[in-house]
Amino acid sequence: MKPVTFNNTVLRDGHQSLAATRMSTEQMLPAAPILDDLGFSGLETWGGATIDSCLRYLNENPFDRLRALKKAAPNTPQIMLLRGQNIVQYTSFPDDVVEAFVRANAAAGQDVFRIFDALNDTRNLATAIKTVLDCKKHARGEICYTTSPVHTITAFVSMGIELEKMGCNSIGIKDMSGILTPKIAYDLVKELKSKLGIPIVLHTHDTAGLGAAAYLAAIDAGVDTVETSITPFANGTGQPDTVRMLALLEGHSRRPDYDPAKLQELRLHFEEVYKQLSKFTSPANERVDSDILVFQVPGGMLSNFRNQLAEQGMADKFDEVVREIPVVREALGWIPLVTPTSQIVGTQAMMNIKFGRWKMICQPAQDIALGKYGKAPGPINPEILALVEKQTGTKAITQRPADLLQPGLENHKKQCAEKGLPATNEIAVLFAMFPQQVEALIKGTPPAEAKPAATPAAEAKPAAPVATPASTSNSASALTHMVLTIDGHRHEVSVEKLSA
Ligand code: CO
Fold first, then answer.
1. Cα–Cα distance measured from residue 159 to residue 176, given in angstroms and rounded to the nearest whole number
2. What's the pTM value of the predicted model, to 2 decimals?
3. Is 420 left (phi over 0), alpha (psi -120 to 50) or beta?
4. Distances (CA, A) of 364 to 50, 91, 349
5. Ligand 1: distance of its center to the CA of 397 in Å?
6. How far, in Å, is the centroid of ligand 1 from the Cα of 189?
7. Which pLDDT tens digit goes with each residue over 309-358?
8. What spacing in Å lies between the alpha carbon of 13 and ligand 1's midpoint?
9. How far apart are the CA of 204 and the centre of ligand 1, in A?
């Protein structure tokens, strides 16, 4: 078997996981030529929360970052993480906006698109995959890994087969919680390799201390690529460190070769950057968190949780709320816990404990039950669905959520023009997702947090709540408000009492 290859994540997931996504382009650029020289099979540099962070905190145009990194590292494919129909936000966008985003991104130099959907509903990936392929770029279809009675190896493999049929150039296994054990990693990769003809990439997090061992097992099973980072933006809640992975593979027939001197140079550079970002780093992210293995939920979710419970005066209810998570997941069709579903499930679990089970249902959870995020992996509990339908006066949908949306791009361009912003695809697609931030960026009135904020690292949050996630529900009788924290951003959600 040929050597395994490494993608490097330090410029995206590495700092998103360990420093609240605050690494600036300026802090990245000196490392880019070294990363490029190392010959990684890909550099993950864009997407996920980085677009939001560029606009909200760093006063940077994310497309300019991409162009600068392409120039500084021209020889290595650059990878972005795309949330399917949600682009890099939390709700569905119309097809024309998704297409324009992918085209603008491809034109700015993006090579590889990692495309996922929080529900693993492949209909939510179709437009993005098709557009990436139209642009002659690489579409990597992602399978979100989670555990539940409906998430069997057979189910994951059939999703992989479907993604290959949809034209994906490779398949990623996305273990956002770091709960993939070596044995399952081995079996899953082995099975995917036997059924699929395209390369398989494994992406995990070392949050629970399993990451490097899962990679090793996957390499034994024939995985083509694994994703590593550079210390100190590695290990803990991030990807396993490159040097550590190389050491683990010492003497292995599939060990790749990456120049140790250059890796050391990178380490020294990133140690400095890590110090500069000390306001956003936290020892809690750097260590192995066995809570994840006990509770089977993503690490980031638990730290959010502790904050949210404290805000609600429920700090003593932590264990009870965590035990409620599987109850909520099961009722909502065993949805994976990944942005934004992890936050929605967490909030609903908290409400079940606070108000009594299903006495109040938050609007995003209603929307999941109603199919507005897509098809859940398992059946929605019929009693909960009936309650939600009664409460909202609407019926569950079975079609692809974006089929209900009108085209939006021309309207966003018109709005840009009205505000005196360039009505280009690039600006319009950013404006569609982050209107205030884009206007502030272009008009040179950066948001207050564009400078490093004085927020404590562990709870680096913006001062002002951003817009409530768009929802299609119309009910007006909100009784109370709760705050939903997504990727560190606070969202107010209204909560209604059920008549039943
Ligand atoms: Co990740």
1. 17
2. 0.88
3. left
4. 24, 10, 13
5. 30
6. 18
7. 888 888 899 889 989 999 999 999 999 988 788 889 999 999 999 999 99
8. 6
9. 6
